[in-house]
Design goal:
By secondary structure, the chain is mainly beta. It is built from four helices and 17 strands. It is 9% helix and 50% strand.
């Protein structure tokens, strides 16, 4: 089944590419005259578990992300065609084990090594279709919002975390083979379909993103997402609903059974309550508690830009996440598990256009869900520079 889905989608993609030769580009942004744009960013987080958890200690993690963007319309005259190549270096370590949580307090942890990440091409077909293929991950296009990228804790930052906890989708910085088709018929509606290789060693950081192999044993992750952009009570809003379906050989908890199918449903809504103040709510659910430790997760967040009039580009941020454990996972822990809750509040100083400083405090309630680990208090600071 997974081979048929993958083959059909890839063939359809190439047929579509072959039918359209010249289109108008929808890509925008500042470019060099030769159509090549370099970029580099460095981010670091230092945090300490000062109370509760399993061990009081401090940790530091950093990430260098750099690469090139290519506008092939300028370089070769291929209208609506662009590409990207990038590398990532992650270093340092996190506090997940010291806190006893399933969530990592430092979102820059995961794959502490050097990786080749982006190696893909994207083409627009008119102003409605676009197709991307190459080395990428699902989190570049699915289950994401610009409002997520301000949390130190990875419960929120980047993607709805429950989708990633059990390795059933691809994620930054572990690139894999994938293709994504986007259809946006108008300003209010958008549809996306993505197919991604999910190899058994996709999260092996010793591969450095250089394992380009395709194996019969690989699982397949298929994403679908619908986005709506409009107004709720006359305020700007966005809603998206999606699913991740996995086809392959999926191990079960507490048994020798192997499942060949998995699905997780997810959704998001955000509303601009007043000018500069946005709120969002996310949910993710899977009925397959025998496969995933966290069948349900929900997050809420507030992002207030310009509340302090003398600092119009600063932001005040608040996030809360609750995650419920599956009974099958709980039985492996030989304990009845209650939901784990993570709260975070922070202030983001936009020092310059390219430099930010963000102190924050996290409060982790029932780390690991057992109730036997004391609630943890985790202050931290995030420093980021983008060029």
């Amino acid at each position: 089944m997974k081979k048929l889905i993958s083959l059909f989608f890839v063939l359809t993609s190439y047929i579509l590419m072959g039918q359209v030769q010249k289109t108008d580009s929808t890509q925008s942004g500042i470019r060099l005259k030769n159509g090549i744009v370099p970029f580099v960013s460095y981010a670091s987080i230092a945090a300490a578990n000062v109370s509760g958890g399993l061990n009081q200690t401090s940790k530091y993690a950093g990430q260098l992300y750099t690469g090139l963007k290519f506008d092939f319309e300028k370089i070769l005259g291929w209208k609506g065609t662009r590409a990207k190549i990038s590398i990532i270096n992650r270093h340092g370590s996190g506090l997940e084990k010291e806190v006893g949580s399933v969530f990592e307090p430092l979102n820059l942890v995961g794959g502490q090594n050097i990786f080749l990440y982006d190696l893909n091409v994207e083409k627009d077909f008119g102003d409605k279709f676009s197709l991307k293929a190459g080395r990428t991950t699902s989190v570049d296009d699915f289950s994401v919002s610009k409002l997520y990228y301000y949390s130190l804790n990875n419960t929120v930052n980047g993607v709805i975390r429950a989708l990633l906890l059990d390795g059933l989708t691809t994620t930054f910085p572990f690139a894999t083979w994938g293709t994504r088709l986007k259809y946006k018929p108008n300003a209010k509606h958008q549809f996306q379909l993505g197919v991604y290789q999910l190899g058994k060693n996709v999260f092996d950081d010793k591969q450095n993103g250089l394992d380009f192999s395709l194996r019969n044993s690989d699982d397949l992750s298929v994403f679908f997402q619908y986005d709506w952009f409009g107004k709720v009570a006359d305020r700007n809003a966005r809603i998206y609903l999606g699913s991740n379906q996995v086809f392959g050989s999926l191990a079960n908890f507490n048994s020798d059974n192997i499942s060949d199918y998995f699905i997780r449903l997810y959704g998001h809504i955000d509303v601009e309550l007043v000018k500069g103040l946005s709120s969002f709510l996310t949910m993710a659910y899977s009925p397959h508690g025998e496969i995933v430790k966290l069948p349900f997760q929900s997050s809420i967040g507030l992002n207030w830009k310009g509340m302090v009039k003398s600092r119009p580009n600063d932001r005040i941020l608040f996030f809360t996440t609750v995650g419920s454990f599956s009974s099958e996972w709980a039985s492996l822990q030989q304990n009845q598990l209650s939901p784990e809750v993570v709260m975070e509040i922070g202030y983001r100083f936009q020092v310059t256009n390219y430099f930010v400083l963000q102190p924050a405090v996290q409060y982790n309630i029932r780390p690991g869900g057992s109730g036997i680990i004391a609630n943890a208090v985790i202050p931290g600071i995030w420093i980021e520079a983008n060029f």
